[in-house]
Amino acid sequence: xxxxxxxxxxxxxxxFVIIVFILINMLASVFANPQFYKLSKWVTLFGICLAxxxxxxxxxxxxxxxxxxxxxxxxxxxxxxxxxLICAFFLTLLSRNMIREKRDRAFEYFTVFLSGxxxxxxxxxxxxxxxxxxSMEALGLSCYMLxxxxxxxxxxxxxFGYLVQGAVVSSLFLVGLSLIYGLCAQVNLxxxxxxxxxxxxxxxxxxxxxxxxxxxxxxxxxxxxxxVPFSSWLADTFEGANAPIGAFISSVPVLAGFGILAKxxxxxxxxxxxxxxxxxxxxxxxxxxxxxxxxxxxNLKRLMAYSMSVQSGIMLLGLCVFSVYSLSSVxxxxxxxxxxxxxxxxxxxxxxxxxxxxxxxxxxxxxxxxPYYVIAFTIVLIALAGLAPTCGFVAKLYIFSAVAxxxxxxxxxxxxxxxxxVIITYAYWRIIRGMFRRIETDIEIDTHxxxxxxxxxACALSTVVICIYADKIxxxxxxxxxxx
Length: 484
Description:
- The longest helix has about 30 residues, at about 155-185.
- The chain has helices spanning about 1-30, 40-55, 75-95, 95-100, 105-125, 130-145, 155-185, 190-200, 205-225, 235-240, 245-250, 250-270, 275-295, 300-320, 325-355, 370-385, 390-405, 410-435, 450-470, 470-480, and strands at about 65, 70-75.
- The protein is built from 20 helices and 2 strands.
- It has a two-stranded antiparallel ribbon.
- A hairpin with a 4-residue loop joins strand 1 and strand 2 (about 70-75).
- It is an all-alpha fold.
- Helices cover about 75% and strands about 0% of the residues.
- The protein has 2 domains: about 1-265, no CATH class; about 275-484, no CATH class.
């Protein structure tokens, strides 16, 4: 019993806190009166704050292990856990109006919501492919269940399509895992790396088989990150989902996915250069197709779906040229993406919940009714576009410089990626241009939606502050990347 307590304190404390509050919400969903639905939000917020505080008590030097070495805690995993919990805090506040409409299922909603947060945190700490598969599939199941909270027939159809596609890529992951196990009879990431490092008979046939198996396995991550060729579900799913759930899908799985991909790439890129070229091609294809698709969208949620796809493509390109410098640039990009993306979703939620505005044509003349709101929305859009004076500019500059330093092989990919970022900037500009147009309108924005406005203003301010102190945060990201 003492060993179990020590293990929880040193390596598993934030997850344990989340589990406790999942159980509290689960019991409340069964026994609590629906009229106390507001308590669900405050209970969840308290649990998330407690989990954030508990991350600072974890043992990171030396690394701590739990569950017989299957669960790792170090500075790299703690970095991702804090980002995931920050997302959870903001997303809980953004769910205010949704749980008001579904007050009889408020505790049930936060049970599923916290379960997704738990499995995302577990995914970045697991050190074997079995635990990784279970964590990512449980996170995907949480996304499916959250999507099902929208009761419209169209939403149910989209959720089912999302579920079927997720099942297909999960089967590909298992096929790839079986091939990896056939090569080295291991599922632990460290043991697999050790096997290939010590195998003198590693030839071209084994390299081809390794590359093929990894491509099959990473299809599951390409799907969850909205990357080509598994991005067809994005726009329709986001349009049919409630905006807080769209914000969840565009942030939490992205953090977990890149946290895991970086570990996989670190191990296997030493043994197959072909894999770098394959995923660099996937990245730039995603950037171009996503950018072109975003410029044709009039629905804000569909535009944000393609925005997520493009941002994921940029980060994947940074991972393909794997080094401490490029990994730190991806970590910094993720840090900036969290605030810019959630700020944009906060603005969309505020628009829809107060005035049912969800198309670009509805935003004309908004500057003359809510100037502070429009300015904050413009700042987070500029951050997503990667323009100064926001952190998005520093993040894109940092990640593209990492690609440029990798050599001439990746120079064509860099040029195409730069072209894609220019195209996606036009998509964000369409929103800004509409809000600043001089047209008389009778738009009324609810001034009592304190949670959404607070998050929007906080995220807009954060994008500017991060830009000012970018050198300090980059140093932290470099430290995290070095001790990965």
